[in-house]
Design goal:
Radius of gyration of chain A: 13 Å
Largest interface: A-B, 19 and 26 residues
Shape of chain B: globular
Number of strands of chain B: 11
Number of helices of chain B: 0
Number of strands of chain A: 9
Largest sheet of chain A: 5 strands, mixed
Strand content of chain A: over 45%
Distance between the termini of chain A: 38 Å
Strand order of the largest sheet of chain A: 1-9-8-3-4
Structural class of chain B: mainly beta
Shape of chain A: globular
Order of helices and strands of chain A: EEEEEEEEE
Oligomer: heterodimer
Amino acid sequence: DAKTTQPTSMDCAEGRAANLPCNHSTISGNEYVYWYRQIHSQGPQYIIHGLKNNETNEMASLIITEDRKSSTLILPHATLRDTAVYYCIVRLINAGNNRKLIWGLGTSLAVNP
Amino acid sequence: NAGVTQTPKFQVLKTGQSMTLQCAQDMNHEYMSWYRQDPGMGLRLIHYSVGAGITDQGEVPNGYNVSRSTTEDFPLRLLSAAPSQTSVYFCASFSLAGIEQFFGPGTRLTVL
């Protein structure tokens, strides 16, 4: 699976959009981009995933560049409860029984009042 | 659904003691896994299972045993605890036909 690179930490003002970048320059055509987050001391929580089109759900939007070498997770109106570590992961589409995810250190997002 | 549950939430062991961390899920997921998380490091896979009776090793399996006798349960055994096993342990599950992994709340283990 391709590796990802994320900034170590970011700050965002409450109510503003939080844009979290991820570089996955070695991604292959059959790999999804996944985003999870981990609020302090809790288990990671799935946010969103995508292949090449932009995706949106009730939690966030995912923008993937045309060459698929990077993506951005957007939290449109960040709240204090969005303070967490955000992980960007790539995984094979047809992973079958191979569902191992390679977890990096993620981006620690601090939402400030 | 309760999702993924883990017990205990906290545990303190002495070096050499044994114990079992429990994990259960009620979503009928085929795939279950155990991770450990240490300060300054990402989640690392210990063992995983793709169904009852089938288990395999992850990145850091040494010192841990698992078994999967039912779809619902996937216990993690420490046969002889060592201080290096002090960590937070997470259990996860998902359906092979699904998308997301579901994580339990974690077990914080300290080995003295």
